Amino acid sequence: MDTLDVVILTVVGLAAGLLGGLAGVGGSMVMIPGLGLVMGYTEPDKPEQHLYAAAAMLVNVLVSAPAARAHQKAGAVRWDIFKVLAPAMAVAIIVGVLISNEFRGVRLKQGLAVFILAYCALNIYRVYHRRKELARANERLGVVRLIIIACTGGLVAGILGLGGGVVIVPLLQIFCRVRLREAIATSLATMTVTAILGAGMKIYTLTEHGLSIQTALLYAAALGPGAILGGALGAALNHRLPLSGVRIAISVLLIIVAAKQLDLLPF
Asked: What is the CB-side half-sphere exposure of residue 33 using CA atoms within 13 A?
């Protein structure tokens, strides 16, 4: 990895951090494709997808922590929800990583692209079909409901190398009626715990695919500084920018990313 690669990955990390802070996701949907674009793949099965997921999951720890702190200062973190989500999601993300190790990298790459497109479709739909946010008295915070949400988010995160917020945030809104800003903040707080466990397990199992743990750490180090800055900036902007516009902009970017992942673009 030369100096130019480091600079490019730092910019990728910055973009991922902004996404994480603004949308309550870890930024893996930018980092993993970004690593694939910059560093490439050596075989048709694309085993490096596991390597890129490991690096991105480690950076998610760096992204979520400062972003969660900014949201906490704004009083948006719901600790009553966090205490249910965190333990359930911690177990689920480890299981998800173990499941991911049974798949070839090319399938995980394709799966991530399909997931990104589904996320964008939901994002755009919700911009034009907005529900009025209700008072807390209208929330539905059953423990079983929260555990199911946490397990779903953890499994998807572990399998695809995500932070989990991309699943947790909309599910908290749709099924628990939690306000968007609080869902984002609580998701990020949860990820400060679960991302550590998921990243640790993914990195530990890289040797199963003949991949280097040291390389994953090197990629994470290149992505990390930009991701930290972007995460803090994104979280601060989240409380100042119109969320509808943010959703549209993020969705357009991610549709391009997904199309590239599926090799649908000429560049």
From this structure: 23
